[in-house]
């Protein structure tokens, strides 16, 4: 298996290290025999954690694996590779200037999305059954959408983030990728055990206006038809929510990596240096204003989720852009910068810490459908996701 993984990575650039298995007793547990890829910003016992950077988070090998990895291994899963990412999770394309470009399995000339792109590609190719990622503004859901796999982000704090190299501490979520919703539900039972069995679930389609192109809107409408969604709700806050979230990301990222920036500035990639430096320059008043807006948005979205249980919308504005494409198409002939606007539809829900899942919806190139629920509704979300998958089918 190791040789096959290395050959696959040589073509798609989605794996950093392939681990040769050590002799062991047959695994037991609910995930016995599952192979796992782990994003490079999650600690693995005995290995130095780099988070896609030439500068290690800590030069010493980790004494223990990230908490999520430990739980998966106790359940019988086996880690076989570390996966590619944007340096320090700064980005939406897994274009890391220190590493080979990570390529989309549906079209290698297109981005896999990011910053957890390597994990999405590993699952899409069948190299692993499960891959862990992290999501700060959409970094699980965006690559899941563009690579045609299931990408699940539980609510903030629902998965223990111990052993994670931080990007923005109040926004970072541990999430995962699978081929099927049933597999995602099995992982949820291991990482977020509970008995929140869902009852009837009310769904509503979100009016995304011109924040999605024809492919994104078609993906949403396929889901609306498949789920029999009748209600539609307005959400006029996408851009301002993303802007506020990026302010918080910049400030908290600069705080987390300030020492690295001071000591190893020239070893960091240009984009990361720029982002961290900009975060240091953000006025404190702007950070406070962004946090106040967060509370306002939480009340607004709470009102929406008072009358419905699950919001249905595209995960990304459209399908994967080409690697050399700096602008992406939106609706009504509009364009926007590829970054950060690949995350314009996902950032608000990381900002609020709400659980969300991206489910493949068909199409010539993948575009996912995003389902968002209120805090603590992970299993209700996966119930709706399973209905959608049953109607549309699992991608080949």
Automatic annotation (TrEMBL):
Residues 26-193, 284-382 form the Amidase domain. One of its GO terms (molecular function) is catalytic activity. Residues 96-110 have a biased composition (Basic and acidic residues). InterPro entries: Amidase, Amidase_dom, AS_sf. Residues 95-118 are annotated as: Disordered. It holds the Pfam family Amidase. This is Asp-tRNA(Asn)/Glu-tRNA(Gln) amidotransferase A subunit family amidase. SUPFAM superfamilies: Amidase signature (AS) enzymes.
